[in-house]
Amino acid sequence: MSDPHPGARVVATAAAEEAIAGLLRGRGPVMFVQSGGCCGGTAPMCFPAGEFLTGAADLLLGEAGGCPFYIDGALYEAWGRPLLLLDVAPGFPEGFSLPAGEGRHFVTRTQAGEPVTCAAPPPGSSPAAGQRSPAAGH
Hints:
Number of domains: 1
CATH architecture: Sandwich
Shape: globular
Oligomer: single chain
């Protein structure tokens, strides 16, 4: 079966695209960060653009709904570098994340539609899967 998203490493579902469009209209530009914290790392965090300072270990996977999506490099390696699907689900967001609409939060799934699971990064893993964050080294 051919890849419906060649070269993409993160794709937003229609529901996520709609939620992002609502955030852009109401709040302005946003960014997504998938941290390496276990098990909080299984939920993407949505912030106003620039509010979260990315670091040397963060990879820019691409854009979801026109907004940058970063992931902890070791976490991405531990998950086996899957195509990630940004989606929405019922419930409230964790931590300081912006909601995906009233009573909804963003979630990350694999290409097969399965939610990602908590996995500790392998010791000494190297985040070579993607592009380094522009803030790397600062």
